[in-house]
Every structure is written in C-alpha cells, then in structure tokens.
Amino acid sequence: MTSPLRRRVTIEDLIALVPSFPAVAVTGPERSGTTIATEMICHSTGYANVIEETWDNDFDRLWRILGERQRVAVHAPHLTYRLHEVDEKCGDRVLVVFMQRSVDDIVASQRRANWGVRSGHCPDGGDPKGWGSPASRWYDGMSHELFRDVIDPDAHLCLNRQQVWERRQKALVSHYVDVEYESLRSHSLWLEPDRRR
Which of 2, 35, 44, 166 is 20 to 30 A off residue 155, Cα-Cα? Predict the structure, then answer.
C-alpha cells in the first residue's frame, strides 16, 4: 500500500482493512482494549496473534516480527513509547491500530487489575503519572526525553501516552487507524463486563 492510511474506524472497518497489510501492531495504553482488539482481528482474519510476551520489551525483536513476518497481529501496548519509529524500522508494511478509550475508563480498569503495581510504574499502588517510573522495566527514557515538552508530569501515564500519540507520533506513521473501544461491542467476541472473568 503506497498512499497513507490515516483515519478513525470501527472494528468492522478495521477487519476489512487488515488484509491489505502483512503486519498489524495493536497498541494504546494498557487496559484500553488492545488485547481484545488483537483477538478480534485474528479471529476475523486468520492472522496469527503475536502476544506481547513474544517480544517482551525487546524492540529489536519487535521490529523483526513486524518487518519480516506475514499475516500477524502483534499485541503491543508498550509500543506507544516508540510508535514514531515504526516506518523507519519496518517501512510501510505495518498498520498501526491505536485503541482509544476514555482516560477515566482506562484508569478504573488499571485499578481493578492492580496494573500500577504489576507494571512497576507505581509500586505503592497509586496511579502512574508522567511517563511512568524510571524504576519500571517498561520505562522508556529515550522517548521521555524526546517528548518531554508534551508530557505532563502530574497527568496520568495513559493520558500522556494518548497526548504524545495525537500531538507528535501520529504525523510520523504512514498507516494508522484509531479505534474507539466502544466500537468493539459489535464484534462476536465482545463480552459485557459482568460476563468477564
């Protein structure tokens, strides 16, 4: 695909677009719907689901997967720190799917899952702020320096990641779609919150 693809889509639109790309990277703040969106893509297209643990914060491995493998959907919430590198590392073969969900809903979900502690971004059990904790193995100091002018040290980490995407990274990615979390409700894999484990 040579002309840029940049727009907001529903899950149905996304599923129709996916076969035009050898690789798809599903990203957004943790608890924004990246896991279920990746599963929906794979269920509907036959793409292989490359779970986050496969590349486990090793960006060289991630770039190889996205740059070389065919018919893969990579679950990559941590990629939000490095989205601006996708085209440079992988050319125009990757469709970036950025999950959009309200910050309040993400924060509520992170609290229920105790994500701040589990990620190491907030060992005291609070809400991660700024660009996260430098003590976390998931912290990305290079992108922190690059986007320092956009990052609000008092704002929630997920809001900062959304703002960096909107204000700085989006313009550097050839092919992306934004998908609203609520649009996932129309897919057959959707479960209402009271039916989830």
Answer: 35
